[in-house]
Amino acid sequence: MKRILIIEDELTLCEKLAQALRQEGMKVDTALDGESGLAKAQEKPPDLLLLDIMLPGLDGISICRILRRNEKTAQMPILMLTARGMEVDKIIGLETGADDYVVKPFALGELLARVRALLRRTREVSHGKREILEAAGIRLNQISRRCFRNGEELQLSNKEFNLLGELMRNPNVVLSRDLLLTKVWNYEYAGEREVRTVDVHIRRLRIKLEENPAKPKRIVTVRGVGYRFQDA
Ligand code: CA
Question: How do residues 129-178 score in pLDDT, each as one tens digit?
């Protein structure tokens, strides 16, 4: 049985979410403030964390950062509940390291779909695939989740790591943005905003990986199609 932890200070929303997830057959624990939520997440890391950003005291972004820094909780799938108008790139990017997000107010069905997708993706990753990917001077350890370029460690966000992993598993093959969204983000439908998310993450990866990010040699753009990892 999957264990979900919800950290959300709006009591009615928190209870509504807990009930819906229990009906899905999940075991749910809740916290109404940041401090107690973080303590619960650290004490017994859940299979997935539903984390509100705006919390009294310790906010969701701080919690996310703390969890990502600790080895025991670094891989915990985190789904952020955000307010309208927040910058998406910041939420899911380097600043927090969250895996996905939904914007309030959201439909319960949408949230449940995201939860299922995130749990499914985690299962796929833990079930094998090659542990270490190595090409073009880049070494990606999928167990320790560490990445090295010519022996030097690179700090990648969760999403950047997964995106690079997907590209490196398919060297010299063009992967479309839609495919990357399906594989890395588990989106079934990709709109303009989602497609832009891929580009943002590719840009960040290039800054970290490429000698000259303006003239990338490892992650190459294939105009009108997508991206390709160049293994040579
Ligand atoms: Ca809140």
Answer: 557 788 888 988 877 788 888 888 899 998 999 999 999 988 888 999 98
Ligand 1: distance of its center to the CA of 6 in Å? 12
Tokens encoding 140: 């990606």
7 CA to centre of ligand 1 in angstroms:
9
136 Cα to the center of ligand 1, angstroms: 45
Give the separation between CA 47 and CA 99, rounded to whole angstroms.
Answer: 13
CA of 194 to the centre of ligand 1 (A): 25
In the chain the domains, ranked by start, together with CATH numbers, are 3-121 (3.40.50.2300), 132-229 (1.10.10.10)
Give the residues across from 5 on adjacent strands: 29, 49
The number of beta carbons lying within 10 Å of the beta carbon of residue 134 is 13
Q: Considering the entire predicted model, what is its pTM? A: 0.58
